[in-house]
Amino acid sequence: MPEERFSHATEVAVRFAETDAQGIAHNAAYLVWYEVARVDYLARFAGGYNRIRGLGLEALTIETHVRYLGAVFFDDRLRINIRCGDLRGARFRFDYLIERVTENGAEPVADGWTLHAVVVHQTFRPTRLPDWLREAIEQAETRV
What we know:
With 144 residues, this protein is an alpha+beta fold. The protein starts with 7 loop residues before the first strand and ends with a helix. The protein contains three helices and five strands, in the order βααββββα.
């Protein structure tokens, strides 16, 4: 993933429960961290995921990708950098760069993306991204 600016970042500490028998963060934890950053992004820029759901819509995750660049361990401080784009019809995409934060700076430990589709809650049929959500995302991304 090319080094580009991200519009938002969320920090987390690696919990013991997220590590495996070798003391390394389990690969599934990265998708949880993506979700933590995504929910935080939507809360900051678009009124929150509950606003989307309150309108009878869902934003389903339909595809994910994680590229692991280095091991992460219990109690590591991570910064999940996130940006949103590729808004097309019912679909939109988040890109991520996860960094380990230390006293000496930050080092990339993973990157990737998730693809989402807006659907009507009752039918799960795709529907166009609401204008207010598109505008909120575009405004957040132009601040960078």
